[in-house]
Amino acid sequence: MIGKLTGTLDFRGQDHVLIDVRGVGYIVYCSDRTLRMLPARGEVVALYTDLLVREDNLQLFGFATLLEKEWYRLLISVQGIGAKAAMAILGTLGPEATGRAIALGDWNAVKAAPGVGPKIAQRVVMELKDKAPVVMAMGASLGEALAQAGDDDAVIEAAAPAAKRSAPKAAPKAAPKANASAEAEALSALQNLGYSPSEAVGAVAQSASDAPDADTSTLIRAALKLLAPKG
């Protein structure tokens, strides 16, 4: 299984790129959002990948972060959601907003992705809503994994060390949004206070949606207000 590719960006298409890794070209399909984050042709690029195996074809799908890859794997586990639809959802919403939409049961946000109808969007929310807290809680640790990609034993590096030494300096990786870490920390804090995962993730998702740039303490205060008994 190829879990990561590091090489030179040789070609950029509408839905894919060609990455040259020591003379071998890998075609990697990416979401619109990921494509916009990639450097210019000829520069060094690194993508986390997932290999789709079919009887007559092998396809690599690329992701800027491990969080995006995790949501892709969850999305394709839903009946009726293939790789194309999963990439469309992630390209439209991004991994953080995908998690918030599912946690809040906002299937209309999922339906905004090209090629995703209302029935499929509702199924995505129904089947993944209980899994959203786990993935959102993973946000902080996945962000650290991205920053330490070279030390991640779970990722297979396709480029040899010699190629790395001779390659030009890589363009800086797009840093994960600070809010993703804040959401994970707020979620953990609320669960430590005794709230259930479903209660905590719903309140944090709503608070983050209302204030995308909020820090951890602000998210916790806003979530507690939402969770406070009414009346």
UniProtKB/TrEMBL annotation:
Keywords: ATP-binding, Cytoplasm, DNA damage, DNA recombination, DNA repair, DNA-binding, Helicase, Hydrolase, Nucleotide-binding. It holds the Pfam family RuvA_N. The keyword Electron transport does not apply. Residues 73-92, 108-127 form the Helix-hairpin-helix DNA-binding motif class domain. Residues 1-64 are annotated as: Domain I. Has three domains with a flexible linker between the domains II and III and assumes an 'L' shape. Domain III is highly mobile and contacts RuvB. The RuvA-RuvB-RuvC complex processes Holliday junction (HJ) DNA during genetic recombination and DNA repair, while the RuvA-RuvB complex plays an important role in the rescue of blocked DNA replication forks via replication fork reversal (RFR). RuvA specifically binds to HJ cruciform DNA, conferring on it an open structure. The RuvB hexamer acts as an ATP-dependent pump, pulling dsDNA into and through the RuvAB complex. HJ branch migration allows RuvC to scan DNA until it finds its consensus sequence, where it cleaves and resolves the cruciform DNA. It is found in: Cytoplasm. It comes from the Bacteria. GO terms for molecular function: ATP binding; four-way junction DNA binding; four-way junction helicase activity; hydrolase activity. One of its GO terms (cellular component) is cytoplasm. Belongs to the RuvA family. One of its GO terms (biological process) is DNA recombination. Residues 178-231 are annotated as: Domain III. This is Holliday junction branch migration complex subunit RuvA. InterPro entries: DNA_helicase_Holl-junc_RuvA_I (IPR013849), Hlx-hairpin-Hlx_DNA-bd_motif (IPR003583), NA-bd_OB-fold (IPR012340), RuvA (IPR000085), RuvA_2-like (IPR010994), RuvA_C (IPR011114), RuvA_C_sf (IPR036267). Homotetramer. Forms an RuvA(8)-RuvB(12)-Holliday junction (HJ) complex. HJ DNA is sandwiched between 2 RuvA tetramers; dsDNA enters through RuvA and exits via RuvB. An RuvB hexamer assembles on each DNA strand where it exits the tetramer. Each RuvB hexamer is contacted by two RuvA subunits (via domain III) on 2 adjacent RuvB subunits; this complex drives branch migration. In the full resolvosome a probable DNA-RuvA(4)-RuvB(12)-RuvC(2) complex forms which resolves the HJ.
